[in-house]
Amino acid sequence: KPEFEISVIGGSRNYFALTRPNEMRQGWASRRPRSRAYFHPAAIFPKLARALVNLTGVREGGTLLDPYVGTGSLLIEGFLVGANCVGVDISGKMVRGSLANGKKLGQDWLGIVRADTSRLPVNSTDAIVTDVPYGRASSGEGSDTASHLEALVDSTRRILKCGGRAVIMHPKQVEILPSEHLKVEEEHQLYIHRKLTRTITVLRRTLF
């Protein structure tokens, strides 16, 4: 019955983690898309969702917004790190599904709103995390990915608090460019298959 455990994660670099017992056992399987109340093939798996949430740097008690909430994958992980979660989606089916998924897991989110990302019903947020819709499995309601990104970046510039991060996952062929008050801080490539590589872009809201 140790008070702490030492975990070693090996790879091209080795990492050592000092944790309380069982903290490294995150219950990933219980949160897999097929285990949820509402399933959709475009749902993100929990380990990737947690990585995206972690990249936002959202703190416990901070507000985390997902403007393309889908089935709620990102908010499920955001809740587990202590964030106050709110989601937006243009699809009423997705809104109901994400609420059902949060309820099944006993998670109390701030709410899920049906709305267009170009007119987000949110005044400010500490962090943003999302996977922009694309392809036939998405709920984009006919809008193309470039239009989604343009609307999202504009909304992010207006509502993200200074110093806050927006983590956006999108197809590699559609680039996010820095704009007024938004700095591209990091970019990561995630190979999916021969025809699709996702880019994870991290934006930071700046004063100037």
Helix and strand arrangement:
Layout: E1 5-9, E2 15-19, H1 46-56, E3 63-66, H2 73-80, E4 84-89, H3 92-104, E5 111-114, E6 125-131, H4 145-159, E7 160-171, E8 182-193, E9 196-205
Parallel strand pairs: 3-4, 3-6, 4-5, 6-7
Antiparallel strand pairs: 1-2, 7-9, 8-9
Explain what this protein looks like in three dimensions.
The protein has 208 residues and is an alpha/beta fold. Helix content is 23%, strand content 31%. The protein has 4 helices and 9 strands, in the order E-E-H-E-H-E-H-E-E-H-E-E-E. The chain has helices spanning 46-56, 73-80, 92-104, 145-159; strands at 5-9, 15-19, 63-66, 84-89, 111-114, 125-131, 160-171, 182-193, 196-205. It has a 7-stranded mixed beta sheet with strand order 5-4-3-6-7-9-8, sandwiched between helices. A two-stranded antiparallel ribbon has the order 1-2. The N and C termini lie far apart (52 Å). The model has no long low-confidence stretch (mean pLDDT 91).
TL;DR of this structure?
This protein is an alpha/beta fold. It is 23% helix and 31% strand.
Total DSSP E strands? 9
State the end-to-end distance. Answer: 52 Å
| Rounded Rg | 17 Å
The SSE string, one letter per element, is EEHEHEHEEHEEE
Number of helices: 4
Percent of residues in β-strands: 25-35%
Please estimate the helix content. 10-25%
Main sheet specs: 7 strands, mixed
Q: What is the strand arrangement across the widest sheet?
A: 5-4-3-6-7-9-8
Keywords, separated by commas or semicolons:
single chain; 208 residues; seven-stranded mixed beta sheet; two-stranded antiparallel ribbon; 4 helices
